[in-house]
Amino acid sequence: MRLGRIRNRMGTLQVAAVLVLAQAISAAVFAQQSASVRPIPRLPSGEVSFEAPPGESGVWNRGDYRSVVPDIKEHAALRNIGRWDTPDPTGLKPLFTAVPFQPWAKELYLWRQQHEIEPYGRCKPTGAYRNIAVPYGTDIVQATDEKKIYIFHTGGSHSFRTIYMDGRPHPTDLDPSYGGHSVGHWEGDTLVVDTVGFNERGWIDAYGLPNTSKLHVVEKITRVDFDRLNYEMTVNDPGAYTKSFSTGMDMRWTPERETFQFLCQDGNLAQELMVGEGSSGIDRTSQIIP
Amino acid sequence: MMKIKSCLLGLLILLPVATSAQQGHPLAGIWLGDWGAADSDRKQVVVELTWTDTSLGGNINPGYPDEAIIASGKLDSANGWKVHIEAAGTDESGKAFTTILDGQLHESDLGSANRTMTGSWNQGGVSGNFNLRRE
User: Fold this and answer.
1) Which among A19, A96, A170, A194 is least surrounded, fewest beta carbons within 10 Å?
2) Which of B24, B77, B108 sits opposite A211 (nearest CB)?
3) Cβ <8 Å between A200 and B24
4) Does B28 reach chain A within 8 Å, measured CB to CB?
5) Which among A203, A212, A285 has CB closest to B51?
6) B25 and A104: CB-CB below 8 Å?
């Protein structure tokens, strides 16, 4: 009787083992199928290339716009209230309650969720996370001879950012700007970009993370396969946060697309979108920022 | 004296192109307005507020005989954006005075570069109210 029970149990274990093995094989096959079959391209210098291969075209598109995941509906922007609990597939974004806001920065962020008067919508240049999380595609151009990398946006203010790769330090007499001053270097195949010198006229992301001129951002950009970039950003701003924190997103390669001449100022409907006239139940009573 | 102050205010009004779209700490910036005990008795004021990591600083009427240096300040953002500022100065006769502002940022225009705040103003024991608009 007892022996039979042990045999039964052994049989169950064998079946379970076979099932686990089958699942593992299936996952491995699926992973192989879903991973890009093309190798990560490299420039003649040996650096990982973020550009389209010769003879091809393409742009990088942000996975999403948000850098912070709401814990509850009240933490979400009104425009996202219906899908506030969309999961973060990257696992890189902090929950709202994990962001080490100073009190004023937290309340200002929450206030912005209800009013949404983003500087980007009025064609202002963008820095930090919002510098990368823009629509219509981004070109990352590696001018290796010049020892510079340029990030060109299609959307927003149609601006670009220069990342100096020649080992220079940040200037000591920086004029604060929307995008700040960026210097970069390679850590293996990861591009590490260090940026300071931000002004206080923008938001860190599309949802209103505040910053002061003390903002210091470190970005890590890794091409994990032909089709995907892993973007991680660490924020350090003692004027707005009690300690540093990190966030990130996935970026996707969109082949056969190119940046185009997008003019934010031309026929910009942001004023109506932000202060009324056709909005759908969103409180946009705040004055527009000049 | 009033003429000089008016000229300064005029110059500051020309500054918004450079300073308008401030999105950082809500109090940081140059604020213009007036204070007084009655509508018929108003004094123009310039309040320059700075935010350094975790502390509020700045001055009231910088460069004038009634200049007061901000000694402490607090923004209670969780309870209606209440503002408390204390400043200390010395008048033309050499007598020390303190200025205390207790006010509130207006939520209705908090997102505007030209946000406003109002409240009570006590300077050297004289009480009144104030209206300030960020430039």
Assistant:
1) A19
2) B24
3) yes
4) yes
5) A212
6) yes
Chain A CA closest to residue B25: A212
Q: A with B: how many residue pairs have Cβ under 8 Å apart?
A: 77
Asked if the ipTM is above 0.90, the reply is: no
Q: Are A96 and A69 in contact (CB under 8 A)?
A: yes
CA A236 vs CA A182, A195, A242: distances in Å: 15, 11, 9
A239 with B109: Cβ contact below 8 A: no
For residue range A152-180, what is the model confidence (pLDDT) as tens digits?
A: 988 888 889 999 999 999 999 999 999 99
Minimum-distance CB partner of B23 among A115, A119, A238: A119
- Residue among B21, B78, B112 minimizing CB distance to A119: B21
Residue A218's closest CA among A188, A242, A182? A182
For chain A, what is the largest distance between any 2 Cα atoms, rounded to a whole number of angstroms? 86
CB contact under 8 A, A124 and B21: yes
CB contacts of A283 in chain B (<8 Å) are none
CA-angle at A162, arms to A48 and A200, nearest 5°: 125
C-alpha span between A130 and A203 (Å, rounded)? 8
Task: Please state the three-class secondary structure of B55-94 as a single string.
Answer: EEEEEECCCCCCCEEEEEEEEEHHHCCEEEEEEEEECCCC
pLDDT tens digits along A196-251: 999 999 999 999 999 999 999 999 999 999 999 999 999 999 999 999 999 999 99
What is B2-134's CATH superfamily? Quinohemoprotein amine dehydrogenase alpha subunit, domain 2 (2.40.128.120)
Strands of B1-135, DSSP E: 29-38, 41-52, 55-60, 68-76, 82-90, 96-105, 116-123, 126-134
3 state SS of A245: strand
CB pair distance less than 8 Å for B24 and A124: no
Nearest-10 Cα torsion for B84, B107, A121, A126: 20
Q: What token pair was written down for A97?
A: 């309650």
- For chain A, which residues make up each domain, given as ranges? 1-32, 58-275
Beta-carbon separation of A286 and B75 below 8 A: no
Other CB atoms within 10 A of residue A146 CB: 12
The structure's pTM equals 0.83
